[in-house]
Amino acid sequence: xxxxxxxxxxxxxxxxxxxxxxxxxxxxxxxxxxxxxxxxxxxxxxxxxxxxxxxxxxxxxxxxxxxxxxxxxxxxxxxxxxxxxxxxxxxxxxxxxxxxxxxxxxxxxxxxxxxxxxxxxxxxxxxxxxxxxxxxxxxxxxxxxxxxxxxxxxxxxxxxxxxxxxxxxxxxxxxxxxxxxxxxxxxxxxxxxxxxxxxxxxxxxxxxxxxxxxxxxxxxxxxxxxxxxxxxxxxxxxxxxxxxxxxxxxxxxxxxxxxxxxxxxxxxxxxxxxxxxxxxxxxxxxxxxxxxxxxxxxxxxxxxxxxxxxxxxxxxxxx
Length: 319
Description:
Number of strands: 13
Radius of gyration: 19 Å
CATH architecture of one domain: 3-Layer(aba) Sandwich
Strand order of the largest sheet: 3-2-1-4-5-6-11
Strand content: 15-25%
CATH superfamily of one domain: NAD(P)-binding Rossmann-like Domain
Number of helices: 9
Largest sheet: 7 strands, parallel
Mean pLDDT: 96
Distance between the termini: 37 Å
Helix content: 25-40%
């Protein structure tokens, strides 16, 4: 089977592509290396993929390039690309979020709907809920994003649902809850925290530290993508939305203590005000995904952190 992974040089995309190759897929990857973080880190993410026998890479921008030739022979699309970051989505940079999260998704869906039987699994976000009406949050709860980033992720999700309903395109949107693990982006809290602990640097702690997140390990995210893709192919039921979370929210202060324990060093905290668009809590009810495809998160937060600490120590030793 042939799969396309968009955003393949990213944290989740590269991990997913490696798993697909290991599972016998032929993989086409595409990435345009947006300047959100250093290109060299993305090239490092691709190190196990470039040169692999059944991997083809396109350095192209999906908002501009011809998509149909890239989709030649592709049966499953894992749409992982997008402009990340809640805090940077305010102000003039919002145009980048519209382009990479909304316009790219629409262009991709337009190409896919002309190819009968194509499956599209799209990476959405728990940011679509904003300050949720209850915790744990279920897929039918109201969506009220409190950041421009969340608005664009919800728009992309609506497009996938719409193309599923109107054209029979086999789509599913996965609402990821705070993904962590090896290769996590350098701007994300756990990478910054672990780096600060290893190097003795300051870590900016926004708010009280009591804000809770439903941290979900990257390999569990990958497994959810694979199971949902298989389910779409057999059920032929497009336009679906699923939460993908660990179902076990943890306070950031507890994460700080765990990292200190794993690294063996206290973290220097710099207390800062809570950021706009940053909810106090996220928590997934992933029972729909469990009932539908048999998925459940298998990696505890401490176990995943230990893996991420080992990875980052290796990276820092090479720099």
